[in-house]
Structure formats: C-alpha cells, structure tokens
Amino acid sequence: MMLKKLSATLVSVTTAAALCVGCSSSDGSGDTGPQPDENGITTIKLGVTDAGKKQWPILIEKAKAENINVELVPYTDYVTPNKALAEGQIDVNRYQHLIFLAQNQANTKDTLVPIASTEVFPLPLYWKGHDSLDGIEGQTVAIPNDPTNGGRAIKVLEKAGLITLKDNAKNALSPTPSDIDEANSKVAINDVDATQTAIVWDNGTPAVINQNFLQRAGIDPTTALTADDPKDASSEPYINVWVTRPEEADNEAINRITEIWYDPEVQVAVAEDTGHSAVTVKKPREELQKILDKLVDEVKANN
Q1: Among 18, 227, 244, 301, which one is most buried in terms of CB atoms within 10 A?
Q2: For residue 5, is it within any domain?
Q3: Taking the first listed entry, what is the main subcellular location of this protein, grouped into a coarse class (predicted)?
Q4: Rounded to an integer, what distance in angstroms lies between the CA atom of residue 99 and that of residue 237?
C-alpha cells in the first residue's frame, strides 16, 4: 500500500492559565514524553484520520485551558499513523480499534499500547436507492480490503444471511474472501481499498462502509440495511482506542487529553459527527491491554 501523509496541520493554542499539566513529579513517574516549555505549555502531536470533525476544535480549546497545546497531524490512510507513532513523529494517535492495533503488533516489531477507549462504531451495509435487502441476491458487495475491516465486513454479511463461510472458517477472527463458500452464498464479494467503498456505493454497488469514509461521502447512517451491534460482547475487538508508546503511557498531558474526550461538549460533537451512530465505551487501560494481548495471540496463531 502506498503510504500517504498529508502535511501536518498545526493547531497551536496557548493560554496564561496557572495550571501546569505534565510537570515532572518528584519520584520521576509520569514525566516521560512531552514536557512543559518555559511558558508551562506542553505540546502534544496527535495523529488522526478525521481532522475535519467538529470534535477537535472543542477538545483543543479545552486542552488550551490546561496549558496543553494540541497539534493535529492528519493522515489519509490507516497504516501511517502507527508507523509515525512508533518512529516518534507523533506522541499519540486516535483512529483505530483494538483488532487493527493487534494486527499491527503481530506483524511488526512495534510495541504500542492502548491507554483509553473512545467508542465502538457499527459497520454497516449500504445500497444506494434501497431501503431493504430485497433484490440483493446475485449482487456483488464491496467490502474494505484491509484484514480487520474486511474480516468484520464478512461477518456482517454472514450474520445477515448473505454469505456462508466454509466450515473451517466459521470461527475465524478475521475471515477472508477465500473463506467464503461461494456456492452457498447469496452475494459475491469484491474487496476494494476502504477509500473506494463509498465511491462504488455512489455508482450503485452495495458496499460495507466504515465511519470515516461514510461521512466523507455524506451518506446518512440511518440508511444502513444491516450492521453489527456495537453493544454486543463480540464487538470488543472493535473498541476504538487512544494509542501511544509504552514509555509515554503515563504522560500526564497525553492522558489528560483522553479524559477531555469524555467532556459533555466534546461528546455532543462526536454524536453529531457520527450521525449519533457511535456507542461510547469506557474501559480501564488494563482491560484494554488484556483484550489486545488476547487478540495479538489469536492473530499470530492464524498467521
């Protein structure tokens, strides 16, 4: 995959507030990573794939009041933000779910860690001009071609009764198109780059589209024909998380940003940004790490 990175959009905010977030503690804990400058301002470089959303200006302003200067660093793909984080180009990112992070950990030497959860998004199937699955039999459905979203999309179609998996793949963590029993399925699959799913939808092809590209195409989330259930326990791998390097996991400023995320004003903006489809999740860091470790083991066992 060609990795692309947009020029960093620096959103600099300063304040004269007296609170010094991220100052070194006497025992040395929590003082790794970005530190306050001579003016008491701590700058955090935050990697995102949705820099245009309403939530960010609100979060940035609230961070400003606590002497935290947030610099949004936008990316247009799902691989580069982890690479940039591992290489120290950014301090934290917020764009991925746990199973995507697990795939990254299993296939690279990265040791990135989740430090807070945000929400779970349903993964829906859309078909332009249709309000039901009637007539979809015999169609070709577009799904994202990355392993995690692609596998999840296949599970969505399986649950809807549109495809059948081969016996040896019924419990697969992330089934692939080759795991589909085509003779006993109602639709065919075309796996395309995630950025193309909304484009083929616009051309009349049924498509499973994840949240970022759904919004960019202006698709109404309420027009989904079917989706998985974010509240179901099986959705744990798809909890979206804040991720950083292990040595910065206790940085006060970074962790304060993850707390500001739950501020009511930020959450209202998140709801508006997602068409009220996101389900907020609050899980302790330790629990997120346990889920991640389990997923990494499963990914490695299936590689």
Answers
A1: 244
A2: no
A3: membrane
A4: 5
Q: What is the pTM of this model?
A: 0.78
Beta-carbon contacts of 192 under 8 Å, excluding residues fewer than 6 positions away, are 142, 143, 144, 145, 200
Which residues does 184 contact at the CB level (< 8 Å), separation at least 6?
164
- 125 to 152, 180, 269: CA distances (angstroms): 11, 18, 24
31-40 tens-digit pLDDT: 578 999 999 9
Interatomic CA distance for residues 132 and 224, integer angstroms: 9
Domain shared by 224 and 140, yes or no: yes
Backbone torsions φ then ψ of 148, nearest 5 degrees:
-75, -55
Token code pair at residue 252: 């006060």
Tell me the one-letter amino acid at 111. Answer: T
92 strand-pairing partners? 46, 244
pLDDT in tens, 179-213: 999 999 999 999 999 889 999 999 999 999 988 78
Within-domain flag for 3: no
User: E strands along 216-269, which residues?
Assistant: 226-227, 240-244
Among candidate residues 205, 228, 251, the one where a domain is terminated? 228
What is the span of the domain harbouring residue 93?
A: 42-121+239-302
Q: What is the pLDDT of residues 128-185, one digit of tens each?
A: 999 999 999 999 999 999 878 899 999 999 999 999 999 998 888 889 999 999 999 9
Could you give phi then psi for residue 81, rounded to 5 degrees? Answer: -60, -35
Same domain, 69 and 212: no
Q: Which of 194, 228, 262 is the last residue of a domain?
A: 228
Query: Which amino acid belongs to residue 40?
Result: G
CA 53 to chain centre: 14
Sign of CA dihedral 148, 114, 224, 168: positive
Indicate whether 113 and 155 sit together in one domain.
Answer: no
